[in-house]
Write a structure and sequence with these properties.
There is one protein chain. Helix content is about 25%, strand content about 35%. It is an alpha+beta fold. It has two domains: about 80 residues, Alpha-Beta Plaits (2-Layer Sandwich); about 70 residues, Probable tRNA modification gtpase trme, domain 1 (Gyrase A, domain 2, 2-Layer Sandwich). A hairpin with a 3-residue loop joins strand 3 and strand 4. Helix 1 crosses helix 2. The radius of gyration is 17 Å and the shape is globular.
């Protein structure tokens, strides 16, 4: 009798950009929203449209995700909007990896290495947070109720993350 192994539920996103924005000023949310043309989310949440996503990671820090071109354009707008202020708008695409996990096995794959409660009542669509996956710091965002997630990490951990995700899954 052959052992049933779970199907691979993840892919590496190729055409993406990741930007990091840090702004320490009282009106940063409103100005960032105007620069991105996207509502700035509250901490622990993500807002997105067809071109860009914005994750609020803390009081003064956001991650911007989209196609490489969309992120570069968004960061340029942020830089222009905050040029006279103490603000950081960096393209981090070269140093990051974006994995998309989808389908019924996605929650099991994530839960195997992450202590978050991923039930939709606790971590609903649009929720995003920094957390640990295995022993790696990642940003995890729930994209929809399919369920689909983004797992964002430093590129140097890509091979290790894929090893963890693939543990017990077919090579496909």
């Amino acid at each position: 009798m052959s052992e049933r192994r779970p199907q691979r539920c993840w892919v590496v996103e190729d055409d993406f950009g990741i930007g990091k924005v840090r702004i320490a000023m009282p009106d940063a949310n409103a100005r960032l929203s105007r620069a991105l043309d996207l509502e700035s989310p509250v901490a622990g949440r993500m807002t997105r449209d067809d071109h860009l996503a914005c994750i609020r990671l803390g009081p003064h820090e956001w991650t911007v995700i989209g196609s490489a071109d969309a992120v570069q354009a968004a960061l340029a707008r942020v830089g222009a909007s905050f040029r006279d202020d103490l603000a950081l708008a960096l393209d981090m695409s070269h140093g990051g990896i974006l994995l998309r996990l989808s389908g019924p096995q996605a929650i099991n794959r994530i839960a195997a290495y992450c202590d978050l409660d991923l039930h939709p009542a606790s971590f609903a669509t649009g929720h995003a947070t920094r957390t640990r996956f295995g022993d790696v710091a990642v940003t995890l965002a729930r994209l929809d109720d399919r369920p689909s997630f983004w797992l964002i990490a430093d590129r140097s951990y890509a091979e290790y993350l894929m090893l963890l995700l693939g543990h017990g899954a077919p090579a496909s």
